[in-house]
Amino acid sequence: MKRLLIAILVLMAGISLAAGTNDVIKLDDITKVDSYKQGKITIGGKLIRSDIIVLPDGTVQHPWSTKTRHVLTAEDIPELMDLKLDVLIIGAGHLGLMKPTNDLMKELETKGIEVLILKTDSAIKKLEELRKGGKQVAACFHIGC
Q1: Shortest CA distance to 40 belongs to which of 55, 21, 56, 57?
Q2: Which tens digit of pLDDT belongs to each residue from 122-132?
Q3: Are 12 and 20 in contact, with CB atoms under 8 Å apart?
């Protein structure tokens, strides 16, 4: 029992450290998303256990999260709302549960920003595709459910 408790504490500490790490990661021609599985994403060899934002220049901001679970609002992504974007990709999670509010969708439409809402695995592929095409694209990825 004592070993089990120690193992759980060590695991929890590792998760907290991984989620709280805010190393600068930047997607480019070399640094890519290595893998994604529900609850974790690896970029350039760095394991991240939190939701992320990807800016048009490839900078990955983490940890990030919405204020209300599975609901995306303009308040959750202020760093993206002031940018001149062509496309915003919303990685809605493994099961596609995260949804933008109607107010957010209206605001993005008013700004002429195309919004793609995809399960996170598909959203990652779409981000890589659009970045190669030279579009001003940003993304927010929910990596959980």
Answers
A1: 21
A2: 999 999 999 98
A3: no
Q: 80 and 140 in contact (C-beta within 8 Å)?
A: yes
CA–CA gap between residue 62 and residue 128 (Å, rounded): 18
Please state which CATH number belongs to domain 2-141. Answer: 3.40.1230.10
Q: Where are the alpha helices (DSSP H) in the chain?
A: 2-20, 78-81, 102-110, 120-132
Answer for the pair 31, 46: CB distance below 8 angstroms, yes or no. no
Answer whether residue 35 shows pLDDT above 90: yes
Neighbour-count burial for 80-98, b at 16+ CB within 10 Å, e otherwise: bbeeebebbbbbbbbebeb
- Comparing C-alpha atoms, which of 122, 119, 118 is closest to residue 145? 119
Q: CA–CA separation, 142 vs 81, rounded Å?
A: 18
Indicate the domain borders of the chain. Answer: 2-141
CA separation for the pair 120, 48 (Å, rounded)? 14
Count of CB atoms situated within 10 Å of the CB of 64: 19
Of residues 106 and 4, the one with the higher pLDDT is 106
